[in-house]
Write a structure and sequence with these properties.
Layout (H helix, E strand, L loop, with lengths): L1 H7 L1 H16 L24 H7 L13 E6 L15 E9 L2 E9 L8 H12 L6 E2 L5 E4 L3 E8 L2 E8 H27 L4 E4 L4 E3 L14 E4 L2 H6 L3 E2 L5
Parallel strand pairs: 9-11
Antiparallel strand pairs: 1-2, 2-3, 3-7, 4-5, 5-6, 6-7, 8-9, 8-10
Amino acid sequence: MLIPFLRKFPLLVLVLLSSLAFEANAQCTKKLSELPAAPELLGFHLGMTKEEIKKFVPQSSFGRKDHFGVSKTTINPAFDETIDKSKFPSVRSISLDLLDDQLTSLWIGFDETYKVQNLEEFVKVVSGSLKVPDTWQTGRGRGWQLKCVDFQLQVSTVAGSPTLRVLDVGAEDVVATRRQAKEEADAAAAESEASAEPELTGDKQAKVYYLATCRPPKEISEPNKVMFKSSEEAERAGFKLAKGCH
């Protein structure tokens, strides 16, 4: 009895399936704007401007933006003696990704002096500090990830110590859209160039022009050479098709 009912209301089926899929994938209902200023974020927060970051860490230096508006930098408190290490206790390295001059990805690599080294314990610390549910799932490699409404948290280990990444999912979508648009534009330009009619070579002295498929019997000197984009253009200029090209 259930199957005929579902066939009668296909839209209802779609809504029910979408709802079930959302519930299955939903790990966290917190929004990026609701994240607290937790100690593990070291004073950074997604959405910071480049100028705010430079003011916070004067040693930060950003490279040029790529085609999609992304710029990156790495801060190394453990190796750069000019950085105030009291701002970044137990931190080896920090990587920042910006989109349109706003922070969209924060990666922090802690060192062996951080209070916990076990990944499961680190997940509990991050969950409590950021006030997110302890419903993490295994991610790439041996790491863990937590997908929320508009951001994602990722933890893993590097050199035996924990790392944390906070990622703006919306920014990733923007970059993906821009990348696809560029690929489509490049493909269209290549197709247009491939389909464009080749230029024709004219001989000013003989008042004839040659197609790309036929060459003049001898090289036309540069002073006598003229290029045309089409037969119509050449003939409007008073040139005739060379006999060998008929």
